Amino acid sequence: MPAKITQKITISNGRLVDPANGIDRIDSIHIDAGQIAALGSKPEGFVADTTIDATAQVVCPGLVDICARLREPGLEQKATIASESLAAASAGITTLCCPPDTHPVIDTPAVTEFIRLRAAAAGHARIVTLGALTQALAGEHLSEMAALRNAGCVGVSNALQPMRNPLVFRRALEYASTFDLTVFIYPNDHWLANNGCAHEGQVATRLGLHGIPEAAETAAVAHNLALIEQTGVRAHFCRLTSGRATRMLARAQYDGIPVSADVATPYLFLSEIDICDFDSQCHLIPPLRTIEDRQQLREALQQGVLSAMCSDHQPHEADAKLGPFPATEPGISGLDTLLPLGLRLVEEHGIELTDLIHRLTAGPASILGLPYGTLSVGASADVCIFDPQASWQLDSSTLQSRGLNTPFLGWEMQGRVTHTLLAGNPVYTLKAT
Amino acid sequence: MSGLEDVVTIIAGIADQLRAGLATAGIDKPAMVGIHTGGVWIAEQLHRQLAIEEPLGSLDISFYRDDFTRVGMNPVVQPSQLPFSIDDRHIILVDDVLHTGRTIRAALNELFDYGRPASIMLVTLIDRSGRELPIQANITGRHIDLKPGEHIKLTGPDPLALVVQTSP
Amino acid sequence: MSRTDLQIDDHGRLRHFLCTRGLNRQILNEILDTAESFAGVTEQTVKKVPLLRGKTIVNLFFEASTRTRTTFELAAKRLSADVLNINITQSSTVKGETLLDTLRNLEAMHVDMFVVRHADSGAAHFIAANVAPHVSVINAGDGWHSHPTQAMLDMFTIRRAKGADFGALRVAIVGDIMHSRVARSQVHALNLLNTGEVRIVAPKTLLPAHAASLGAQVHCNLADGIRDADVIIMLRLQRERMQGALLPSEHEYFELFGLTEEKLAIAHPDVTVMHPGPINRGVEMDSEVADGPRSVILEQVTHGIAVRMAIMSMAMYSKDSESG
Questions:
Q1: Residues C235 and C188 both lie in one domain
Q2: pLDDT at residue C322 above 70?
Q3: Residue C306 in contact with residue C104, Cβ under 8 Å?
Q4: How is residue A68 annotated by DSSP?
């Protein structure tokens, strides 16, 4: 962080929602030296330099986004750490986790360090990284996981790249486990997926799109669970898309296997139906599945089987989406819609606000093994203040990310971030219009 | 509509003029071509009355129209039937109503796609005002002046009758 | 933008021809009727009409195809249009011009129509959505998705062979349904024309997921599939299917799904046999059937020209029309 004189800040009269501590009440927060100093009455001798009036607003821990691609290093034509961390701050996100599939891959401490320095220079958000499970993500040779951990990686992953064979994967899990690293797994059987670009269902059949069967995910989940149980590694499944996979996960959790999972926001709102006009904005990997799957993902999120909701942010330049569907790059620019779409789940689909905030704060923080996502006294003062009643439209002027690739453009959003604080520093304030 | 005898009478008159015209021009083996649909009805009568040996030809000029872009495709197009060679023949081209001249222009273009005739003589039942191109009939049954908004139409094939319609 | 909006202009006329889905029966019949007129033209000594004189049509083929390209070229020339043939074969290692840039460059040369064949499903739709307002797009086949002109010439052929009452017909489509844009378009066109029974016949490996949702009865057994059928359409089997663990051999495929006179006995006595071509003799059917009296395969080729003439003229002229 750039050296700043940290102010004493009081955030008064907001609805404090801190699921980690079971708090949901109207109260004030006092911040000092970049940490939460007190809730409720201010500490002895505390004089606020700044007071933020949070009446009628929600005050929660700064959001923790388990997966956001910042495109730097290597793909700066799409976005940069500076541009995306700024967008994150405007969306109330104070901690972002970046997967290892940058160019070059995060398989050396140098790349981790580069990202850390870039993030610090920009100063808008905290960025943590996952290191590569194998060198160059090629799925063959183990990466220097200890070095990566020492350089600050909070976990390891092979991202979307396949492993050479199950034996290499088992060894990688065991090696990661040696250093108490959590392995972040994208459950996908590369051969069953067979270069598909859409869910193997009615829509893909009609449109003649190469399909990715549900079994590509569920077979991988089953296979991975067996190895997770065998090796005792702590594992996390990234971006589940099918109801069946969530049921397999629930059973495994019930059986005491240390495995967690997340879902990305788009999969809670869209389905295979949304690609029916070859809309490349809905080209996602893993693919959008059926309406039934969407419903089951919502239920699993509510129940906590899925303990985190992430943006799976993938900003693209315009050209990446301009082409025949299979030729376009997959991914949605998701930072800006993480919270508002989450609030829509509360409004329209029966998820409690406290549960939602948990899935955006304590849930992901716990998965990443980080002491964030809470408003505990002594914790880093990462705070998100939002007005739950504010209506606004997502369009090219309100979208903060450099990536305009989202099918949610034009949607009416309810709920808007007004202030974001990172370690006690205000990194975003909504301009009054 | 006054002063218009029945079509059969007009056709008989045309047949007389045609016999005379062919004789004057020294044409003894003409070929006759009618333009769909009304021109074919008239041509069938003339063909019989003049006892022309060569079978009757018919032209559908839909594909040669110049207002194609505005009226669009007409799905029901009869193929043109020309059961004889056009080259070096004397053609009698028959239509029912000569108005702007565009139909005849299209018919001439189409005939020339089939070959190079020695001559073309245009015979029309009715010649009405409103020419937009420098086209004239060699033989005309009746000349008619119509008021703006009025159209004359041949109905048939049996009985053949002329009807004047006013568009609203 | 939905495909319905793209294909039809404000006056209900054809503007682009991308897939049979999104069109209505009336337009399909209009295409068939218009094709009848052109069939008459192509049977004459003067095979040309000046309909599209002065118009430039570009055959933009990203997938190699001599047959289809030739028929489109011939159809365009019979309409007196100027034709440009552009073959862009893409190598995966060489990333050339973007599709959009290729399009813009050609548009700058004032072309009027693109006939597009591409390996990606949705390519024709993408081009139609991004093309200048005065340009029309005809889909000559995109990936596994749609080959609507083929479907129309097949409907034309069926109509000529069996009459216009599709409701009385049982039509079976046999072969590699999963990878076939022809099959998808045919099934949809047949349903739009209210065909009595539409059946697809293939081994499970060559059927797409949720095959029945395409709108046909699904059979994995040839006898069940062609019993009492009035029309049988055989699809081409590509060599690659043996490589992808989809089929063991052409031999077994012919034994189970190939047409012979003997197997045809179970179909309607007047059954018509069709094939989009080119035929693999001894795989989809034996020579006796291919050259026999039930086969209308060569007529399909002839009809292809008239049908494409119809579609190109209909799509070309909708945009010039004044209102009303």
A1: yes
A2: no
A3: no
A4: B
B69 close contact with C: CB closer than 8 A? yes
Rg (alpha carbons) of chain C, rounded to whole number: 19
Domain assignment of residue C264, given as a range: 148-295
For the domain bounded by A61-368, which CATH number is listed?
3.20.20.140
The structure's pTM equals 0.90
Are A429 and A418 contacting, i.e. CB atoms less than 8 angstroms apart? Answer: yes
CB contact under 8 A, B78 and C40: yes
- At C279, which CATH number? 3.40.50.1370
Mean pLDDT in residue range A30-43: 95
The string of pLDDT tens digits covering residues B108-117 is 999 998 999 9
Compare C231 and C243 and report the one with higher pLDDT.
Answer: C231
Identify the pLDDT of residue C9: 84
Closest CA to A380 of A397, A365, A367, A391: A365
Residue boundaries of the structural domains of chain B: 7-65+87-166
Contact A205 C120 (CB under 8 A): no
Residue A312 bears catalytic tag: yes
* Complex ipTM value: 0.91
Q: How far apart are CA A246 and CA A240, in angstroms?
A: 7
Beta bridge partners of A64: A95
Asked if C51 and B77 come within 8 Å (Cβ–Cβ), the reply is no
Q: Which residues contact A92 (CB under 8 A, 6 or more apart)?
A: A62, A63, A339, A384, A385, A386, A417, A420, A428
Could you tell me if C251 and C203 lie in one domain? yes
Neighbours of C293 (CB within 10 A): 8
What's the DSSP call for residue B34? E
Contact A342, A360 (CB under 8 A): yes
Question: Pick from C99, C210, C214: which is nearest to A201 by CB?
Answer: C210
Asked whether the predicted pLDDT for residue C241 surpasses 90, the reply is no
**Shortest distance, CA C186 to any CA of chain A (angstroms):** 12
Question: Does the residue C323 lie in any domain?
Answer: no
Q: Which residues of C touch A322 (CB under 8 A)?
A: 98, 100, 126, 130
Domain spanning A9-59+380-429 has what CATH number? 2.30.40.10
CB nearest to A205's CB, from C143, C181, C209: C209
Shortest distance between the Cα of C308 and any Cα of chain B, in A, equals 14
User: Do residues C222 and C175 share a domain?
Assistant: yes
Buried b (16+ CB within 10 A) or exposed e, C122-149: bbbbbbbbebeeebbbbbbbbbbbbbbb
Which residues of B fall within a CB distance of 8 Å from C307? none
- Does domain B7-65+87-166 match CATH 3.40.1190.10? no
User: CA A422 from chain center: how many Å?
Assistant: 17
